[in-house]
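Archive entry. Fields below.
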Amino acid sequence: MTQFRPVKSREIVMGKLSCGCDLLEELTGICAESEISLGRVEALGAVQKARVGFYNQETRTYEFHELDRSLEIASLVGNVSLKDGKPFVHAHVTLTDETGKAWGGHLAPGTVVFACEFILEAFDGPAFKRGPDEETGLPLWSMKE
Ligand code: ZN
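PREDICTED_STRUCTURE:
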């Protein structure tokens, strides 16, 4: 079922991540520290190695791909909501090599930052909470209070 509602921008946090940190875990930690449980994130930069997921719709499981090489973060887009009462960052990345060839997918822990500049925008409004979705097998948003 399609569900949506308006949100209001509260504040924007902008910064850079430290070399060697885990990209997803660091963004999640910043959300917790900045009390952002509803928002969006964008970032660019480079990684030392990456781990991205592909959701297999037939088996309803994530297949993870390890890219053990330096790559550019051509684009990272994501959102922040609540899962199990904690801020949860859901992000997808496009990563490129020296030839411009791109890989991409669902950002997973295990992606190590070389350099990364991010912008996090916090929204005000009732939480978007993730919970099991029978139709897809994914932890999707439910906006029922
Ligand atoms: Zn995803």
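CURATOR_NOTE: The radius of gyration is 15 Å.
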